[in-house]
Amino acid sequence: MELLLLLVTTLGVALCAAIALWLASIPLRDISIIDMFFALIIVAITLTSLLLAPVTGPLQWLLLALVLLWALRITAYLIARNWGHGEDPRYSKLRGWVNDERAFIWLSLRKVFLLQAVVLWLAALPVQVGMQLGTGAPGWLAVAGTGLWLLGLVTETVADRQLQHFRADPANQGTVLSTGLWRYSRHPNYFGELCVWWGIWLVACEAPFGFLTIIGPLAYSYLIVNVTGQRTLDKKLAREKPGYAEYMARTSGLIPLPPRRQ
Known about the structure:
Blueprint: H1 2-28, H2 33-51, H3 58-82, H4 89-92, H5 101-123, H6 125-133, H7 140-168, H8 188-204, H9 215-227, H10 230-240, H11 244-250
């Protein structure tokens, strides 16, 4: 019963946080703020879960640390990258779906903010269950999960830094980044992001029934691969950048692998 109450409460927190971001997006005329601040929705879910946890032991503090460190890095990076650059073209295309601004405002609430809130709530299920049901000292699953989390955090940090340096050089405009981690994966930053959340799921498996929260990383993986990330970006870059189709042909889409011979 306590777990059900927690899940209902955190869903309400996620929806309220998303609505707050939606309200902020209206005067800014920029719904891209959901990309910059989405991690704060998961932080709000995590803190609520900790406050409602029956015990606060090592597992709870470990989960809190993993989420906060991830959120701090990705939020700082996305704000530095996106702030002041206007609305992401992927979102601007939605404006063509309706005839006026008022209709678009309500469309963005349904199709962007509330939808992402639900997916993020699902992604955070391992954290919620681990906070509520976790007892005792973390074991080998927590060690393995933390290792995978660390691999993911380092990978996405390095990949983002390499991309940032590449974009900062005017000589690279219109070309494809195919060095560093990007030689082995077209989206090493997304690969790192998924490692973070599959690692958190492993940590949550220390709690009773934690393995059932696999729906969380599965939903997040689907969102990143099929909706907002890999496939959408591949289509966009294939249209805009000469040589990207060739890059796709030789480079793994997500998991870093040696380049394919052509």
